[in-house]
Design brief:
This protein is α+β, with helices and mostly antiparallel strands. The protein has helices at residues 2-37, 41-54, 63-74, 120-130, 183-197, 206-213, 231-234; strands at residues 100-103, 111-114, 142-146, 149-153, 201-202, 266-274, 279-283, 300-303, 310-311, 315-316. It folds into two domains: 2-74, Up-down Bundle (Methane Monooxygenase Hydroxylase, Chain G, domain 1), CATH 1.20.58; 93-316, paralog of FGE (formylglycine-generating enzyme) (Alpha-Beta Complex). It is 32% helix and 13% strand. It has a four-stranded antiparallel sheet. Strands 8-7-6-9 form a four-stranded mixed sheet. Strands 3-4 form a two-stranded antiparallel ribbon.
Length: 317
Amino acid sequence: MKMVFVFFSLFFCGITFYVQAQTCCDKLRQAGIESYANGNYADALKKWEAAKTCASKCTTNDLDSWIKKAKDKLKPPAKTQPKTTTPTPPSGAGGLEPAMILVQGAPSGDFYIGKYEVTVGEFKAFVDATKYQTDNEKGKQFAGWKNDAPDYKTNANINWRCNVLGVKRPSSEYNHPVIFVSKKDADAYAAWLSKKTGKTYRLPTEKEWTYAASGGNKKTRQLDFYGSDDLDRIAWYKDNANGTTHPVGQKLPNELGLFDMNGNVWEWCSDWYDKSQGTYVARGGGWTGDATYCLPGNRAYGIANSTSFIGFRLIRK
């Protein structure tokens, strides 16, 4: 009789332990589901793993699949390379016109703006057709870049055909933004393109440039830079450019679909920065400067002469 009593005592203790353990398991399981539903995946994972220690039966329930789901949610996102885009070839009259994007809602009225910075190849078409000589080729002073500062010099052999080091580019680099062009050279290119196409091309005003760079009528919120909070995704600048320009359109565009509004090269605007000093506004930052130069509030100026770090894009009314 005593042995029977001991047996039943152990039996009921076992049942009691199992029920308590199972209750613990169910409570933790449910609490984990609630945490998961609220987006607290770490807490859900903690509760489900604790539930497995309450009762071995939990391991044969759906806990394992829930634990896997929580762990998947907690994995850091895979790093992806920024999308690269091959620039669209110039289109329009005789293949001369650059690709343009319509900008609506600007205070000055709607206008089109170049999808990309004007390239070496596009500027070459102008020179080939007109035999135009740039200010550099006429012996005017220009600025290269050396020791983190403009390096002023005169050398007719360093001109729009060259890279930032003054070395003539191969044809494979004709898709880089044209540099060593003065504001006067940019105006001359726009005048030629206007005459050739019967449309009106010109440099943008600073207000037009800024409106387009900021996303125009497609702007949804204030971003740190022109098109993203992450500068590396949209711009070639000092930290990633390796001391040179890059083909246009390789980084992500802004909301309007405009490329390189930050970085690669600064861009001439038509406005005076200081008329008494003969300086014009340049916007956007370039391969020479750090991230601060790409901030929307940053305004730079350039003497009308050319540099290795200023290019341009055009607008069309």
